[in-house]
Amino acid sequence: MNFKIIPLLENHWPEVRLIYLQGIATKNATFETECPNWEIWDHKFLPICRLVAVNEQVLGWATLSATSARQVYRGVAEVTVYVHENARGKSVGRKLLEKLIDESEKNGFWSLQAGIFPENIASIKIHESLGFREVGYREKIARLDGIWRNTLLLERRSRIVGIE
């Protein structure tokens, strides 16, 4: 599948929103049950390191969110990657995450983390193939549709940033 990865802009929002809704519908991508409006979504994620994979349409998106407001954790972020249901299994997610890692290091991030449902095996494998390792198992961390769910906490430490 041919596509390019470019910065995510507000005009991508309708397609980004659709892909997010598809992820919500799987019940294995997020605890969210509704997609927020652009303003809320825009505020939730960092203004840097926002990416979309595109050909004639948006195939997927990836962003970072802060893990803490404390200055000492300024180089730590949580990754978010979503892929259109028709583009899954075609390296879109992997390429987005590769580019997100690259962009994060260019912007001074030394540690990336991901919270993934254990049932989301494809996402776990992609993260692990790009240097993430499991650092925790969070039992019954939150409820989705009234059911307690577990997540795995994966982390990737940069080999470029913060090594001194």
Give a topology summary.
Layout (H helix, E strand, L loop, with lengths): L3 E4 L5 H14 L11 H7 L6 E4 L3 E9 L9 E8 L8 H15 L4 E6 L4 H9 L3 E12 L2 E11 L7
Parallel strand pairs: 4-5
Antiparallel strand pairs: 1-2, 2-3, 3-4, 5-7, 6-7
Give a description of the structure.
With 164 residues, the protein is an alpha+beta fold. Helix content is 27%, strand content 33%. The chain contains four helices and seven strands; from the N terminus they run E-H-H-E-E-E-H-E-H-E-E. It has one domain (4-157): Aminopeptidase (3-Layer(aba) Sandwich), CATH 3.40.630.30.
Strand order of the largest sheet: 1-2-3-4-5-7-6
- What is the H/E string? EHHEEEHEHEE
Strand content is 25-35%
Reported for the largest beta sheet, the result is: 7 strands, mixed
Q: Tell me the number of strands.
A: 7
Poorly predicted parts: none
**What's the architecture in CATH terms?**
3-Layer(aba) Sandwich
Class per helix and strand makeup:
alpha+beta
Outline: globular
Q: What is the CATH domain class? A: Alpha Beta
End-to-end distance, in Å?
A: 39 Å
Indicate the percent of residues in helices.
25-40%
- CATH topology (level 3) name: Aminopeptidase
Our count of helices gives 4
Rg for CA atoms: 15 Å
Number of domains: 1
Mean pLDDT: 96
